[in-house]
Amino acid sequence: MEDKQITIDRPFITLGQLLKEEGIIPTGGAAKWYLKENKVLVNGEPDDRRGRKLYPDDQVVLPDYPTLVIKAK
């Protein structure tokens, strides 16, 4: 699967915000559940914190979804 680039216009985006904006979860409140039920890798390391700050060039790997690469605007 090809990587998907996510362009942000602010210094960072949280993991929970990213999941919501990409339509992976319906609401921000679902992030906690999603991250506990699915293996999510941030820059190759498992992470289940919805408040994890993602900066340009960070990579997020989700099950059954292209790798998300954060880019600055």
List the helices and strands and how they pair.
Blueprint: E1 4-8, E2 13-14, H1 15-21, H2 30-37, E3 41-42, E4 45-46, E5 53-54, E6 59-61, E7 68-72
Parallel strand pairs: 1-7
Antiparallel strand pairs: 2-5, 3-4, 3-6, 6-7
Summarize the structure.
With 73 residues, the chain is an alpha+beta fold. It has 2 helices and 7 strands. It has helices spanning 15-21, 30-37; strands at residues 4-8, 13-14, 41-42, 45-46, 53-54, 59-61, 68-72.
Describe the fold and architecture.
The chain is of the alpha+beta class. It is built from 2 helices and 7 strands. The strands form 2 sheets. Strands 1-7-6-3-4 form a 5-stranded mixed β-sheet, with no helix packed on it. A two-stranded antiparallel ribbon has the order 2-5. Strand 3 and strand 4 form a beta hairpin. It is globular and about 30 Å long. The mean pLDDT is 96.
Defining traits:
2 helices, alpha+beta, 21% helix, two-stranded antiparallel sheet
Main pleated sheet = 5 strands, mixed
The strand order across the widest sheet is 1-7-6-3-4
What's the β-strand tally?
7
Task: Identify the overall geometry.
Answer: globular
Structural class: alpha+beta
- Measured between the Cα atoms of the first and last residue, the distance is 24 Å
Q: What share of the residues lie within helices?
A: 10-25%
The rounded Rg comes to 11 Å
**Residue-averaged pLDDT:** 96
The string of secondary-structure elements, in order, is: EEHHEEEEE
